[in-house]
Prior knowledge:
Blueprint: E1 7-9, E2 22-30, E3 36-40, E4 45-52, E5 54-59, E6 62-67, E7 70-74, E8 80-84, E9 91-98, H1 102-110, E10 116-118, H2 121-133, H3 138-164, H4 166-180, H5 187-193, H6 198-209, H7 213-231, H8 237-243, H9 249-260, H10 264-271
Antiparallel strand pairs: 1-2, 2-9, 3-8, 4-7, 4-9, 5-6, 5-8, 7-10
Amino acid sequence: MNERKNYGFLFLDGKSLSRDIEICDAGFEECAPGHNYGPTVRNYYLFHLVLSGKGRFFSDGKAYEVGKNKAFFIRPDTLHQYCADKSDPWHYAWLGFKGAGAKALAERALGIKAVVFDVDADLAYDLESILRTDTDSTETLFKLYSFLYRLLGGIYSSLSQSETAKPDIVKSAVRFIENNYFRPFDVTWLAGELGMSRSHFTTVFSAAMNCSPYNYLTRYRIGKAEKLLLDAHDFTVTEVAYAVGFSSIERFSEMFKKYTGKSPLAYRRDKGRKDSGSATVIE
């Protein structure tokens, strides 16, 4: 392993655990501003997982903006180039593989066209952690093989969901929010129940609804709170907060003012029972 703090790679020297799949390249780098690699061609498959920062990836004449929680994928014999942003250069980790079964594995998991993917934030850190803490050993190879299959499995799951399950996922999420808004759940929990990472769930939901799931949930809760403040005068503000799913009066008051421009007490005072029909409740 290279000893430089911001750069490291694993010297594999032809070591492999399988004839079908061979891990052949692995490392990490905190790139200098504007750091450029290529144009070049490789003879193996290669992932770069971005931990932070951003840059541009060029492949087959197309340019892609790639930032945190994304990965870009290089296929063999494909002309490519990548360059770190000059003001916010990326920090990435990479993993390359080849072998008799590599093409079938890659196409099964990723298809034949996509080159940029969403990845869970922790994955890139897991890869760098393996490379920073382990020596060039068989144990490290087992960890890298395990990581490769976790990565491919996660991307396959995300692609399958985004291509075939977007409407069902979003409908299920909206239905759950509208039926359970009064329960103290959050978006991370809901995404997990739907079998998705929070970042991917947010992408899918936002594309369908033109707002993030967090904003949809919060607006729905605030809308219900407006109605309670106007129609249920026996309820204190604290009781209203808990009734619509907030876990604290402080958070409720903060978000209510953010979305309506008034504190809950001011809203109740200014609107009054006679104006309850103007409450912006989401039905």
